[in-house]
Amino acid sequence: MARDKVILAYSGGLDTSVCIKWLMEEKDLDVIAVVGDVGQERQDLEYVRQKALEVGAIESLAIDMREEFVDEYLTKALAANSMYENKYPLVSALSRPLIVKYLVDCAHEYGADYIAHGCTGKGNDQVRFEVAITSLDPDIKVLAPVREWDLLTRNQEIEWAEAHGVPVPTTKESPYSIDDNLWGRAIECGILEDPWEEPPEDIYTLTRSSYEAPAEGEYVIISFEEGVPCALDGKKMSFYDIIPQMSEIAGRNGFGRVDMIENRLVGVKSRECYEVPGALAIIEAHKSLEDLCLEREVLHYKLGIEQKWADLVYNGLWFSPLKEALDGFCASTQKLVTGDVRLQFYKGSCVTVGRRSDYSLYDYGLATYDEDDSFDRNSAAGFIDLHGLPTRVWARQRRKTGQEGTV
Q1: CB 225 within 8 A of CB 186
Q2: Concatenated DSSP letters for 69-112?
Q3: Which residue from 36, 96, 109, 227 could staple onto 337, CB 3.0 to 4.6 Å apart?
Q4: Residue ranges in the chain modelled with pLDDT below 50
Q5: What single string gives the DSSP state of each residue in 10-24?
Q6: Is 96 a catalytic residue?
Q7: Catalytic residue among 174, 177, 209, 374
Q8: Helices 378-387 and 389-399: angle between axes, nearest 10 degrees
């Protein structure tokens, strides 16, 4: 009798390799492993695919998701200037819904009733995977082996793997937990779990220390068309190609590190370090161009939309009606966000030092204090009178309470 099938989000590491055998033996399921390439530090995906087969998967797929990740996910993230807790560009949270989309597609293609992931029971990713899966297909059953099994320590997991024929890494493993994609790297665990300890240099691979960055600094002009990066220093390029270029430029100048105490969805505060040079620089440029091209009320209102967008995606609600509606708002604001921004990088900093656009709302005649000034100062008195009218009425009434001049 044929066994039921499960689609496993597979990385090739010890946890998900143990998941294959565990799902086979504990759940009596045939495993189909899916490896998603979202631009993580280059690994031999064919090797990873073959490893899943050697462990016991009946099928293993390595899927290149990089261009779709940029075109359908990072463009939306940039339109929203997504910065969780106003500190860092979302990294893992942006890739999870794309990976899930392929997991669900594979479940439909192979007739699998189950999808499994290798997330722990204390992090955000378990929420992101499971909510996204059920959002796309509410009838699929989700399995979380790492949350269920009794292997509480890494040594116990290694012993179980050896006893069940799962290859165990022979090289010394990093003490850090790292997740990465085209947009950046997320680093945690090890010494980083002490929020007083300074992050050691060995956690970083994309950025130089600001002490070692070039003394002369560097300028770059990034161009946008309807909010999407389209050129560097006048050379036409796709957003996909611009990301690694900007990451290289920013990184070699020591820009792009984030060290924060983060509030996880599950209620835990965690110390997280991120390395996001390209993402942070592109967002800085994008926001600077929006400052020039968006009308004041739209710009101010959008700030709240951006924070809500980041919260929703961080919390695993990419496939939700509110997130979809906010995407529509953000997309409408980008129609005239076309132009150039000049960034200056210098020893860990990234500063906008110039911006221009054919759709600029900056009017020199209105802004200048020189003889070209076209602003009608006679309008100011009447404007101030009407603007302050409600508070004057309130102040007169407040006198009756004996609290005049106080708050």
Answers
A1: no
A2: IIIIIIHHHHHTT--BTTTB--SHHHHHHHHHHHHHHHHHHHT-
A3: 227
A4: none
A5: --SSHHHHHHHHHHH
A6: yes
A7: 177
A8: 50
